[in-house]
Design a protein that fits this description.
single chain, 658 residues, alpha+beta, two-stranded parallel ribbon
C-alpha cells in the first residue's frame, strides 16, 4: 500500500507540474481568434481582441490559491450598421483575477479588476432602437448576487457617450475609481445636452462590497439638472440591480412640468415654475410618490402619484388636492400661456397652441384633481373638481365641475386623438348659478339677483381650443328667471340716458326680470341667435345677430323695447368687431318712437316648439320662462288665426310664416 501511494503521489506531482508548465508557457494569443469568433457569434456583432492575451499563474501565490490573473489588451465591439461610429465599445486594457475555487461553487469573485481607457458609444436609431440591444438579450431578471464580487477596482480614463438624435440629446459621462471595494463607492458624473437643454449628472452609490451584499440596503445619491429642471434623489434600494424596494426622498423643481415628459414618456401641459418633494416607494412595477407636496406658480398641491410602464406603455395615476388654487396656473392645460411675457398682449381670446395627437396616443393617465379654495380672474368659483382619463388617445374629462354658491357648472368633455385631427364632444350643464356671483366686482352686483340655468352641446374638430371653437357645431342655451337686474344696466342698453342718470340719485336701482332666454345655434363656429330675449318689468330686450368664434368677431344688434313712457328716444345698439375690443355704437338710422312700445314676444319666440325641449333644465312647467313661451306661442297662434281669416280658401300658414 505504501508503494502504491508513493507512485500515486509522484503521478499527481508530475500532473501538477505539467499543468503549471502548460499554463506558464502556453501561447494564450492562440485563443484570441476562437474567443473573438465565439463572442461575435453570440452577439451577432463583430468582436475582436487585437492585443495580447495572457494568463499569469505565479508559482509562489496564484497557483496555490488558484487565482490566475488574466490580461486582455485592445478589445473592440462593432457598432450597428446605423451607428454614428464603427465601434460601439473599445477597451485599451482589461486585467482581472478570478478565484477558481469560488467559481466552481457558483460564485464569481474577482479579487481585483483594472480597466483602462474604456470608451462606450450608446445611441438610438431614428426608430428608437438602442445599439445595445443584442439578439441574445434575455428578459430574465438578474439578482444582485449575480453581480461579480469585486475586492479592488481601478477605472482609469473611461468615457461613455449617449446619443439620441430624435430628441437632440447627447451626454458625455466620465467614470473613475481606485481603491478597496469596501471603501470605494460607485461614482458617475457627466454633462452634455438633453432635449436641447444643458444637462449635468452626478451619481454616488455605496461601495462595491455593499452592492454585492444581499442583506444590506444599497445607498444612492443622485443629482441631475436638465436646463431649469432639477432632480435630487437620496435613499436606499434593497436590490439596486432590479431597483426593488426603494426608500427614497425626492426633490423636484423646474420652470414647467411639460419638460418632464421626455423623462417619463407622459405628455404634460405647460405650467408656471414648480417645486415638489415626496417619498418614493415601489410596488411591483408601480413607482409611487407618497405625500407629494409643493407649489406650482402661486398654487399649492398635495397628494399621491403613481407611475408604471406596463408593456412599455407609460401610465400615470394621480390624486391631487389644492388648498389654494390660482386658476391661471392651470391655463396651460387648455393651450394658453401660463407665464406670458410682461407687457406682451395676445391678440386672440381663445388659446391657439395645438395639442399633440401623437403624444396623446403615446401614454395613458388617470388623474383626479380637487380644490375648494380657488382664485379666478373673472368667474367666482367655490369648488373645482375634475377627473381626467387618457387611454390610447381617447381623453375623457368627466366630470369637469365648478361649484358657484349653490349652483354648478358640470361638464363632460371627450377628445378623440386616435387620428391626427382631434375630434371633440363637449356637454356643459349650468344649474342654479347666482347672477349676483356672476356680477361680482361690478357696480351691478348689489342690485342683481336670480339663478342661471343653461346647456351647451358642441361637436367639433381641431387641435387647439381656438380651432375647436372655430369648427364647432351644436346648440347653446342660457336661461334665467324670477330675478333682478340693475335698472341702470337695462336703461343703458336702451340708451335712455336721462333715466339712467336719474337712477343714480334714487334708491330704485333694480328692475324685476321675468325671464331671460339666450339661445344660439352653432354651425362651423358661427353662433347665431335663435332667439335671445330678456323680459323685464321695464322692457323687453332682444339681441339678434351672430358671433364668429373662428374669427373672434361679433355682429350683434341689441334692441330695448320699453314698457313704460320714456322721456327720451332709444335706438338699437350695434356691437361689431373683434370680441376682445368690440365697437358698441347706437344705430342712429333707426330711432324708436317715444312712449310704450312693448315688443310682440310671439314673433320673437316662434316657433316655440324648437325651444321648449331645452327648457327641461330643472325649472318645471310652472316656471316663468315656460309660461312666457306658452304665452308667446298662444300669441303667435292668435296672430296666425287672424291672418288666416283674412285669407279665406288659402292653405294654413306653417312654420316661420305662422
Amino acid at each position: 500500500m505504501q508503494h502504491i501511494l508513493k507512485w500515486v503521489g509522484i503521478i499527481l506531482l508530475v500532473l501538477i507540474a505539467a499543468v503549471a508548465l502548460f499554463l506558464a508557457f502556453f501561447d494564450w494569443n492562440k485563443l484570441r481568434g476562437p474567443i473573438s469568433s465565439q463572442i461575435s457569434s453570440k452577439l451577432d456583432r463583430r468582436f475582436e481582441i487585437k492585443g495580447d492575451l495572457d494568463v499569469d499563474m505565479d508559482w509562489t501565490s496564484r497557483i496555490t490559491t488558484w487565482t490566475p490573473r488574466i490580461t486582455v489588451n485592445e478589445m473592440e465591439l462593432a457598432n450597428t450598421n446605423w451607428g454614428s461610429k464603427p465601434e460601439m465599445l473599445t477597451l485599451d486594457r482589461l486585467q482581472f483575477s478570478v478565484r477558481l475555487w469560488d467559481l466552481l461553487k457558483g460564485d464569481v469573485v474577482l479579487p481585483e479588476i483594472h480597466l483602462s481607457k474604456l470608451n462606450a458609444q450608446l445611441e438610438k436609431s431614428a426608430k428608437g432602437k438602442g445599439n445595445w440591444e443584442f439578439k441574445t438579450d434575455k428578459k430574465d431578471k438578474t439578482d444582485r448576487t449575480e453581480i461579480p464580487k469585486i475586492d479592488q477596482l481601478t477605472l482609469k480614463d473611461s468615457k461613455l457617450v449617449y446619443r439620441d438624435p430624435t430628441t437632440d440629446t447627447e451626454l458625455n459621462l466620465t467614470a473613475s475609481a481606485a481603491g478597496a471595494a469596501k471603501e470605494q463607492g460607485v461614482n458617475l458624473q457627466g454633462k452634455g445636452r438633453f432635449q436641447g437643454e444643458r444637462f449635468t449628472l452626478k451619481v454616488q452609490g455605496g461601495s462595491l462590497l455593499e452592492l454585492w451584499e444581499k442583506t444590506k440596503p444599497y445607498p444612492v445619491d443622485l443629482k441631475m439638472a436638465a436646463g431649469d429642471t432639477w432632480v435630487a434623489v437620496e435613499g436606499t434600494f434593497a436590490d439596486p440591480v432590479q431597483l426593488q424596494e426603494p426608500k427614497l426622498t425626492l426633490d423636484l423643481r423646474g420652470d414647467s412640468l411639460a419638460k418632464l415628459a421626455p423623462f417619463i414618456g407622459v405628455p404634460l401641459a405647460e405650467t408656471p415654475p414648480y417645486k415638489f418633494s415626496g417619498h418614493v416607494t415601489r410596488s411591483g412595477e408601480r413607482w409611487v410618490i407618497h405625500d407629494l407636496k409643493g407649489n406650482m406658480g402661486s398654487s399649492d398641491m398635495a397628494g399621491n402619484v403613481e407611475y408604471s410602464s406596463p408593456e412599455d406603455r407609460p401610465f400615470l395615476k394621480a390624486d391631487i388636492k389644492s388648498k389654494r388654487l390660482d386658476f391661471k396656473d392651470l391655463v396651460g392645460f387648455i393651450g394658453a400661456d401660463p407665464t406670458p411675457e410682461e407687457g406682451k398682449k395676445n391678440p386672440r381670446i381663445f388659446p391657439d397652441k395645438p395639442y399633440n395627437p401623437k403624444a396623446m396616443r403615446s401614454a395613458d393617465a388617470d388623474v383626479n384633481f380637487y380644490s375648494d379654495n380657488i382664485i379666478t380672474p373673472n368667474l367666482p368659483v367655490d369648488e373645482f373638481k375634475t377627473h381626467l382619463k387618457m387611454d390610447h388617445g381617447m381623453l375623457t374629462v368627466d366630470p369637469l365641475n365648478f361649484r358657484i354658491d349653490i349652483g354648478q357648472i358640470a361638464s363632460t368633455i371627450q377628445l378623440d386623438a386616435s387620428k391626427d385631427l382631434i375630434a371633440t364632444k363637449a356637454d356643459v350643464n349650468i344649474r342654479k348659478v347666482p347672477l349676483k356671483r356672476l356680477l361680482a366686482d361690478t357696480q351691478f352686483k348689489e342690485e342683481s339677483d336670480g339663478m342661471f340655468f343653461g346647456q351647451i352641446n358642441l361637436d367639433t374638430t381641431g387641435n387647439s381650443i381656438a380651432d375647436m371653437l372655430g369648427h364647432g357645431n351644436g346648440d347653446v342655451l342660457l336661461l334665467m328667471e324670477q330675478g333682478r337686474v340693475s335698472r341702470l344696466l337695462v336703461e343703458l342698453l336702451g340708451l335712455d340716458v336721462a333715466k339712467s342718470l336719474g337712477l343714480l340719485l334714487t334708491n330704485d336701482k333694480s328692475t324685476r326680470v321675468r325671464c331671460i332666454i339666450g339661445s344660439f345655434n352653432v354651425n362651423q363656429g358661427i353662433m347665431k341667435t335663435s332667439p335671445f330675449v330678456i323680459d323685464t318689468a321695464d322692457a323687453n330686450i332682444t339681441i339678434a345677430g351672430q358671433v364668429d368664434l373662428g374669427k373672434e368677431t361679433a355682429d350683434l344688434q341689441i334692441n330695448a323695447h320699453p314698457k313704460d313712457v320714456s322721456l327720451s328716444a332709444n335706438a338699437p345698439l350695434n356691437v361689431k368687431g373683434p370680441l376682445k375690443s368690440p365697437s358698441v355704437k347706437p344705430d342712429t338710422t333707426v330711432l324708436a318712437a317715444k312712449g310704450a312700445a312693448s315688443v310682440a314676444l310671439g314673433a320673437l319666440l316662434t316657433p316655440a316648439a324648437a325651444i321648449i325641449p331645452w327648457i327641461d333644465l330643472g325649472l318645471g312647467k310652472d316656471s316663468a320662462c315656460h309660461a312666457m313661451i306658452d304665452e308667446a306661442k298662444a300669441e303667435s297662434d292668435e296672430t296666425a288665426r287672424k291672418i288666416q281669416q283674412s285669407r279665406p280658401g288659402k292653405a294654413p300658414l306653417k312654420g316661420k310664416g305662422k
